[in-house]
Amino acid sequence: MRAKQVVRTKEEHVLYLGDWVFHVGPTFIETPFGTETKDADLHFYGERLTEALEQEADVTPLSNWELYRLEPGRLETYLEQSAVLIISDVEAKCFHLYPSFFDRARRENKVVTFPDRLQVIKEWIRGGGGMMMLGGWLSFSGVQNRSGWGRSVLQEALPVGCLSTEDLVESSAGFTAEVVLPEHPVVKGLSWSSFPPIFGYNEVQEQPEGEVIVRVKETGHPLLVAGTYGAGRVLTYMSDPAPHWGINFELWESYTNFWLQAYNWVKRKP
Questions:
Q1: 131 closest CA partner among 153, 104, 163, 154
Q2: Residue 152 in contact with residue 122, Cβ under 8 Å?
Q3: Could you give the angle at the alpha carbon of 59 between the alpha carbons of 54 and 62, nearest 5°?
Q4: Is the bond into 221 cis (omega within 30 degrees of 0)?
Q5: DSSP 118-156
Q6: Which band of pLDDT confidence, cut at 50, 70 and 90, is reported for residue 270?
Q7: In the chain, where do the E strands start and end?
Q8: Could you read off the pLDDT of 92-106 as tens digits, one per residue?
Q9: Dihedral of the alpha carbons of 216, 218, 221, 224, in degrees to the nearest 10
C-alpha cells in the first residue's frame, strides 16, 4: 500500500516523512490451533498538519517503509524540489538501508554503496534547506532509545541534543506551553492562552546554538527550539503534531497559523 500521490499545483513543495501507521485487527482466538485476524487499515496521522501547510505548498507525505525503499538518488530529487523537509516519528535507520542491497540476483557479486542519505540531508540544510523535526515515540531518542538520532550524522545540524536513554515524558493529565520568546516569528500573535494540554513530548538537551522559543510549563523542558546550520534553518518541536500526544493540539484555534508561521520561518531560501 502506498501513500497518496501528489499533483503539484503550487510553486513550493514540502516533503513530509513519517506519521503513517498500519492498523491490523481485530484478532480473534477461537481455537487452540490458530487465530483469525480480520481487516487492516493504512492511516495517515499527519492529515491535519498537511491541510495546514497546503495553504502555501504542495505536500508529499511518505511513510517510513516508503522512505526505506526509496531507490538511491530519489531522496536527493525530492530535496531539490522542496522548500521544507519534515521528519516526524521516523527512526534514523530508515534512511540507511535499501532492501535491494540484499538481493543477490541484482548485485552480480559487485561491491556496492550509495550516498549516506542523512549526510545528504545535512548538506542540503547547510546549503540553505529548511527542516522541521517533530516529536513522537520514534523521534529524537524515542522509546527505548530506538530512534537513533543522537548517534546520527544529522545530530550536528539539530539545535537540541538527544538523550542517551529513552526520552519519552508522558502524562494523562497533560502538559501546557510557556512562551519564552513571544516576539519570535514562529509564535508571534498566536493564541497561546488557549493552547490545549498535550499528552507527552521528547525530553532533549539544550544546546548553546539552539534558541528556546517555548517550554513545557510544568517541567521547564524545551518544547520548541529554533536554530541554524550553515545557510539553512532547523526547527524542532518536541511533541507530536498528531495523535496520540497531539490529539488535543490538533483542535487548537491557532494550529494552522502556527504551522504556517513555522513553515515560513524555516523554509529554504531562494
A1: 154
A2: no
A3: 145
A4: no
A5: HHHHHHHHHTT-EEEEE-STTSSS-GGG-S-GGGSGGGG
A6: low
A7: 13-18, 20-24, 27-31, 34-37, 40-44, 58-62, 84-88, 130-134, 160-162, 168-175, 177-179, 198-202, 204-206, 211-216, 222-229, 232-237
A8: 999 987 776 666 656
A9: 0
SS3 state at 18: strand
Give the C-alpha separation, 159 to 266, whole Å: 13
Main-chain phi, psi angles of 230, to 5 degrees:
60, -130
CB 222 within 8 A of CB 160: yes
| Residues 6 or more apart in contact with residue 116 via CB below 8 angstroms | 95, 96, 153
Amino acid (1-letter code) at residue 156: E
Q: Is 230 left (phi over 0), alpha (psi -120 to 50) or beta?
A: left
Q: What pLDDT does 22 receive?
A: 80
The per-residue b/e assignment along 232-243, b for 16 or more CB within 10 angstroms, e otherwise, is: bbbbbbbbbbbe
- In angstroms, the CA 37 to CA 260 distance is 41
Q: Rounded to the nearest 5°, which phi and psi values hold at 157? A: -90, -10
Sign of CA dihedral 100, 105, 106, 110: positive
Q: Range with the lowest mean pLDDT among 61-65, 66-70, 109-113?
A: 109-113
Q: Among residues 173, 178, 70, which one has the least CA distance to residue 120?
A: 70
Could you say which of 3.40.50.880, 1.10.3210.10, 3.40.50.300, 3.30.450.20 is the CATH number of the domain covering 13-21+41-266? 3.40.50.880
